[in-house]
Amino acid sequence: MAQTPQEQTATGVAGSPRRIAVVPHTHWDREWYDPYQTFRMRLVALVDELLDLLEGDPSFRTFLLDGQLAVIDDYLEIRPENEGRLRDLASSGRLTVGPWYILMDEFLISGETIVRDLQLGIRRGTAFGGVMEVGYLPDMFGHVAQMPQILSEAGLGHTVVWRGVPSAVDGTAFVWEAPDGSQVRAEYLVAGYGNGAAVPDDAKSLVRRLSTLVDEFADFLDPDAPLLFMNGTDHQRPQPWLGRIVAEANAMQGEFDLAITSLPDYLSGLSTDGLPTWSGELRSGYRSNLLMGVGSNRVDVKQAAARAERSLERLAEPLSALYLDPGAWPTSFLEVAWKLMVRNAAHDSICACSVDEVVDAVLHRYAEARQIGDGLTDAALTALGLSLRQPGTTVVNPTAVPRSGMVEVVVPVAGEPGPDIQVLSERAGLPGQVTLAGSLVKDMLSLIQGARIDEDTYVTDVSLTADDDGIDVTIVFGHQPSNLTTIEEVKRELYTLLTARPDSEVRVTLDQPSVRRLLARQSDIPGFGWVGFQPAPLEHPVTVDGDPATSVTLANGLVTVVVDAATGTFSLDGIPGYGRLVDDGDFGDTYNYSPPAHDSTVDTPDSVTLTVGDRGPVRANVVVTATYTWPERVGSASLTREGSRTVEVTTTVEVRSDEAIVGVHTTFVNPSRDHRLRVHLPLRTPAGTSTAECAFTTVERGLTAEGRPEEFGLPTFPSRRFVAAGGLTVVHEGLLEYELIDIEDVDGAPTARTLALTLLRATGMLSRLGMSYRPLPAGPMTPIEGPQMIGPVEARYAVCADGSDPYRVADDVLVPLQTVGSFGGGDRPASGTPLTVTGAEVSAVQRTAGLLEVRMFNPGDQATEVVVEGRSGWLVDLRGRPLVPFEGRFELRAHGIATVRLD
Ligand SMILES: [Zn+2]
Asked: Mean pLDDT, 10 residues at a time, over the chain (903 residues)?
């Protein structure tokens, strides 16, 4: 594809003029170095101006509103009266909108969030005559491997990309292929989405600018290939002279033929003939900044995202879809929650390369989305509890695969606990009577707000009798949730009585049984199903041995963990060194890690104390309290880590019966600035690659990353929920950045011995100048305090080395079994499931137009048969359009994504 400049210029001048597609646009970061409302004021001014311009100047043919519908909704909230004007311009093609709702980051959000973003954009865009049929991805910090499939599944055959394109691509277009073989045509924005920004009101300088651009990128351009000239950049307002100077430029020269056009019009004439193919993700820093450090910037934001995603995708939606009446599907609650998630997916929002007010808003949106998810989960579980025939505790498996696992339940005390039970606490009952003055009881009535008293206690019955001697109230407590409706009646009756007889005494009889909170293992819960609680015999109970002064062993016959009091680390099946905390300097910014000129590392604690917590047989853990002395900051003059701070890091290492997984929970109050804290996890065998989860599949990566002098190719990579390398699987909650380190040559091949998982990256500038790993700024050089993460920090992860399917390990760690109480009297039997799906990972279960909709993907390298037991329906695309019908089963290609609607 490459041409020499001489050949290119010669052909370009001698042949027909080069077509220049001028696409006026703005790139609208909704929130970034200013908060949303501040940027929105500028947006309203911009769109006001744009509407007048497009309506008044036919030569300003078209404008690209950044490929995201959010800007339209943000505008219309302030100017609802202009909806018709926007719709008219969009319907007539003068304004191109969508297809996204937001221009997201692709690596730091879930695959489902990417899909919901696209679906929301397309749905909202129909009100404006439909969306731009181009998967526009101008500023994302790299691109996930499955993006071509996601776009294809939504009927989009074109994309436009910039960051992440590797050195192997040497032209302005390529065929981009997903792991399943789906392909789209990708237009590469050689000099970014702003290669035609800020054109002065002068046709001559426009022509000069084009000549310079063509010369600069001669290697990329075929002699007669058209050139995309993107007239816009971050928050740029339309340039009203554009139509006139384009006409003047055409009149004054013959080298370029300029036309103001839209992306779809420009791309419609271009084919994929002869283009090179690139398969997989785009994460190169060879030509433009990838900004890989955003994955570990503000870990609290990434953890909040992981919790909210899990609450909505893995609990609230499947449980509501399967256990509520179809008519009770909580459409509006979920729309609110998903809009919060999608808004947060904006690249500057989830990346948190933004001022602190923006990050506060992002955290608040995640909290609200999670609160909705948790509330809907509770409601769906309660509905299941009320529908069961038998009373008692029921265990629910929210995931598609049949499971066994630990549950924590409260049961009435009945005899001695068996050998398979671990008692956490017991509470004696409160049978008894108190006599209270009526005036006091009257004051207390308003405090009784429902049947739930505390976590383990519910009012299950309440009754009232009155005679001349006084008033008798009997309250019966239980440990199961109650749908008691008589509480309000009794409250009203009592209030009436006490108003009439204010001097009465009230005899309150409390009837509360003794209860026991316990851990047990529940086996064989069907996928998406339930089973009445029955403690399973423990085949591999966990035991605790040793002396906390030297070492403590947790073992269950599947895994042996020895926690060492000298180092605070633990060995896993004989290999030592897990959990070593390594703290070094970070004089980077929110975008990139960058070591200070004179770095120092702290990887040894000053002191360690071990304390045994739970002792089995279901759950055992050791609490490691380690004290470190960390430097306080990087001195801006010395570029050295200076000062010192003492920090106490508390790490709980946990093993459960019958599982080969070691859970780790680390907390500390971060006292230091300008540093990076990673935990080192030894691989079982040296490895040259890692396999990490990303949207709808896993990707394999090597030990290096492409970079350039302007951005060091740091091989820190993102993983969604897990990463596996050298026989070790690491599952985490929102700790998205890992790196394979301790690299040595083995038989001529570089291999790594350790996986480093980033727990914290603390920096103090939105962007910085002169960093060792990225000398030029990537955004405003604004000091910000939030990314220093001074204050409480926590990290949850787990390791597993028995070769288990990492998707199963991730579900075991991150999506625990749920429990619900039942009164009995419903129709459902003691065990069952409303949906059985095998042969693929299930990504979403929801209701659409009353029908069950299930999205799944095949992470394997072979085609698989997906069985949806006893159900038929249609495979649909991501716009909900029917593709083919199926009866009970269908084949899913390797790495394929499929969405089905069930009859
Ligand atoms: Zn941007």
From this structure: 37 71 98 98 98 97 98 98 97 96 98 98 95 97 98 98 95 96 96 94 97 89 87 97 97 96 94 95 97 98 98 98 97 98 98 98 98 97 94 96 97 89 89 77 71 75 83 82 72 85 84 90 98 97 98 98 98 98 98 97 98 98 98 96 98 98 98 98 98 98 97 98 98 98 94 98 97 96 98 98 97 97 90 98 97 98 98 98 98 98 97
Q: Report the alpha-carbon distance of residue 566 to residue 604 in Å, rounded.
A: 10
Cα(86) to centroid(ligand 1), Å: 23
Please give, one letter per residue, the 3-state secondary structure of 186-212: EEECCCCCCCCCCCCCCHHHHHHHHHH
Query: What is the CA(775)–ligand 1 centre distance, in A?
Result: 20
Residue 865 and residue 839 in contact, taking contact as beta carbons nearer than 8 Å: yes
The C-alpha atoms of residue 606 and residue 680 are separated, in whole angstroms, by 18
Task: Give the pLDDT confidence score for residue 11 in this predicted structure.
Answer: 38
CA 193 to ligand 1 center in whole angstroms: 10
Distance between Cα 78 and ligand 1 center (Å) = 23
The residue among 315, 541, 405, 536 whose CA lies nearest residue 813 is 405
Distance in Å, CA 56 to ligand 1 centroid: 29
Span from the CA of 647 to the centroid of ligand 1 (angstroms): 37
Cα 133 to ligand 1 centre (Å): 20
Q: Environment class of residue 20 by beta-carbon count within 10 Å: exposed (0-12), middle (13-18) or buried (19+)?
A: buried
In this structure, what are the phi and psi dihedrals at residue 316, rounded to the nearest 5 degrees? -60, -50
Q: How far is the CA of 189 from the centre of ligand 1 (A)?
A: 14
CA 115 to centroid of ligand 1, rounded, Å:
20
CA–centroid distance, residue 600 to ligand 1 (Å) = 34
Is residue 364 within 8 Å of 308, Cβ to Cβ? Answer: no
Q: Is this model's pTM higher than 0.85 or not?
A: yes
Under 8 Å between Cβ of 258 and 246: yes
Tell how far the Cα of 494 is from the centroid of ligand 1, in angstroms.
62
**Looking at residue 493, what is its pLDDT?**
86
Count of positions (residues) in the chain: 903
453: nearest Cα among 504, 414, 487: 487
Please check whether residue 189 is in contact with residue 230, taking contact to mean a CB–CB distance below 8 angstroms.
Answer: yes
C-alpha of residue 782 to centroid of ligand 1, in Å: 17
Ligand 1 centroid from CA 191, angstroms = 15
Other CB atoms within a 10 A radius of the CB of residue 748 amount to: 5
Question: Measured in angstroms, how far is the CA atom of residue 151 from the centroid of ligand 1?
Answer: 20
What distance in angstroms lies between residue 387's CA and the mean position of ligand 1's atoms? 49
DSSP 8-class letter at 145: T
Answer for the pair 365, 372: CB distance below 8 angstroms, yes or no. no
pLDDT at 49: 98
DSSP state of 266: H
Q: How far is the C-alpha of 420 from the C-alpha of 422, rounded, in Å? A: 7
What pLDDT score was predicted for residue 13? Answer: 46
Which residue is listed with tokens 């990314």?
A: 787
- Cα of 161 vs centre of ligand 1, distance in Å, is 12
Report the separation in Å between the CA atom of 856 and the middle of ligand 1, taken as the mean of its atom positions.
Answer: 30
Cα–Cα distance measured from residue 399 to residue 424, given in angstroms and rounded to the nearest whole number = 27
Cβ-based neighbours of 56, under 8 Å, separated by 6 or more: none
* pLDDT reported for residue 10: 35
Contact 868/144 with Cβ under 8 angstroms? no
CA of 348 to the centre of ligand 1 (A): 7
| Phi and psi based region of residue 789 (left: phi greater than 0; alpha: psi -120 to 50; beta: remaining) | left
d(CA 813, CA 793): 20
pLDDT in tens, 45-54: 999 999 999 9
* Structure tokens, 640: 């050295």
Helix (H) or strand (E) holding 621: strand 619-630
